[in-house]
Design a protein that fits this description.
The structure is a single chain. Helix 4 packs across helix 5 and helix 5 packs parallel to helix 7. The protein is built from nine helices and eight strands. The chain is globular and about 45 Å long. Helices cover about 45% and strands about 15% of the residues. Helix 3 links the parallel strand 3 and strand 4. Strands 1-2-3-4-5-6-7-8 form an eight-stranded parallel beta barrel, surrounded by seven helices. It is an alpha/beta fold.
């Protein structure tokens, strides 16, 4: 398995420094948070996009994902959501990223209706994503935090242009064990987001291995299935500015994940 980290852990950090953090700490890729607060977002010009590609390319670091914020199950008209995903897909294609991240965002909508709305929108973008050479991944999150919840939607879509990100915190909070989540998501799995927290009541981000999330069990399940995709650390410093800086935690995080991989082998 290859290792990446999300720029959610280094808010607004210039790309040059993001790339340096990856290379100095042995990470193979980066998930880029695509937001106007960040150096990478859909408003970049063609020249600015080319510069990002060049900086990552020179360092041999992969741009794994454009992490967008479109909510595919949200109430309202389809077109604004489709436009938001479309802009993120074009950005991902221009950057050479493999994936675009989207959220469910169904809110209080009844689950069957939310599933149908999300499936309709994802089905609309799936062939476009495939033509662009990217894949739109629905993260286990908010209204659909369990693997079974996301699998219901993706089963309705039935197109390889869409898939899922398994966020281990949200599936754990949904009451699923990794041995249950993986079979539900396996047909659709793009990659896995790892993180750690103190408890279900306190989701303040911790260093990997310092909390309660079933990281060892998750890696074990993946290894037994011979899954060889990406593990991406999403350290949510943007939402918890009081936590330690990511830079000092990246090396220990890589070592922790490497130990889990070695143990599972």
């Amino acid at each position: 398995m290859k290792l990446a980290f999300s720029t959610l852990g280094v808010p607004a950090l210039p790309i040059e420094q993001v790339v340096r953090l990856a290379t100095e700490n042995g990470f193979h890729g980066v998930e880029l948070r695509a937001n106007d607060e960040e150096p990478v977002h859909p408003g970049l010009s063609a020249g600015e996009r080319a510069d990002v590609v060049e900086q990552f390319g020179k360092a041999g670091v992969e741009i794994l994902t454009v992490a967008a914020y479109a909510k595919v199950a949200a109430p309202g008209d389809d077109q604004p959501v489709l436009d938001e995903i479309g802009a993120a897909m074009t950005l991902a294609a221009d950057l050479g990223a493999s994936y675009v991240r989207v959220f469910p965002g169904g809110g209080d909508t009844e689950s069957q209706e939310a599933d149908a709305v999300a499936a309709r929108r994802l089905a609309a973008v799936a062939p476009v994503a495939a033509d662009l050479g990217v894949r739109v991944l629905l993260e286990t999150h908010d209204s659909h935090r369990g693997g079974a919840d996301v699998a219901r939607i993706l089963g309705l879509v039935g197109h390889q242009g869409v898939g899922t990100i398994w966020d281990v915190m949200h599936t754990w909070l949904a009451g699923e064990q990794p041995s249950t989540t993986y079979p539900a998501l396996a047909p659709y799995l793009g990659y896995v987001q790892v993180k750690d927290i103190a408890s279900a009541a306190d989701t303040t981000p911790l260093a990997l291995g310092a909390g309660v999330l079933p990281l060892a069990e998750t890696v074990e399940v993946l290894s037994r299935a011979d899954w060889d995709g990406w593990l991406c650390w999403e350290y949510e410093k943007r939402w918890y500015p009081q936590v330690p800086e990511l830079a000092g935690l990246l090396g220990p995080a890589r070592e922790h994940l490497s130990r889990l991989l070695a143990d599972s082998a």
